């Protein structure tokens, strides 16, 4: 399951396996190569949790998403919510809608 997600995300970023390995090596100091990426993607081997967290950072997704929780979507940068005003409440002030 995780291998399918890694392959899908790698291809979405238009990276070859050796390119992903190089990114992991440079950014996180992992000793990863193209063969290891291939093993993860085919399910022959599963990455350890630290590597999974590094992959999540590289792909900008949550660890849960990589582990197969399809309900989890890639992380959003944020959502802007307009604030229309505020209401003070509490003792001795009461919030009364008119």
Structure, explained:
- The protein is mainly alpha-helical.
- The chain is 48% helix and 0% strand.
- It is built from five helices and no strands.
- The chain has helices at 2-12, 17-28, 34-42, 49-59, 63-66.
- Helix 2 (17-28) packs across helix 3 (34-42).
Keywords:
single chain, about 100 residues, mainly alpha, about 50% helix
Q: Average pLDDT, to the nearest integer?
A: 84
The helix-strand sequence is HHHHH
Q: Compute the separation of the termini in Å.
A: 55 Å
| Structural class by secondary-structure content | mainly alpha
- Helix content percent band: 40-55%
Unreliable spans: none
Largest β sheet strand count, sense and barrel closure: none
Task: Please tally the helical runs, counting DSSP H or I stretches of 4 or more residues.
Answer: 5
Q: Tell me the overall shape.
A: elongated
Q: Strand tally, please? A: 0
Which percent range describes the beta-strand content? Answer: under 5%
Taking all Cα atoms into account, the compactness measure Rg is: 21 Å
């Amino acid at each position: 399951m995780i291998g399918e997600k890694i392959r899908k995300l790698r291809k979405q970023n238009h990276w070859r396996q050796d390119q992903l390995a190089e990114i992991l090596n440079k950014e996180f100091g992992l000793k990863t190569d193209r063969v290891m990426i291939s093993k993860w993607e085919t399910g022959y081997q599963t990455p350890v949790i630290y590597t999974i967290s590094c992959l999540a950072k590289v792909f900008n997704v949550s660890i849960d998403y990589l582990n197969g929780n399809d309900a989890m979507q890639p992380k959003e940068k944020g959502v802007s919510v307009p604030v229309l005003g505020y209401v003070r409440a509490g003792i001795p002030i009461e919030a009364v809608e008119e």
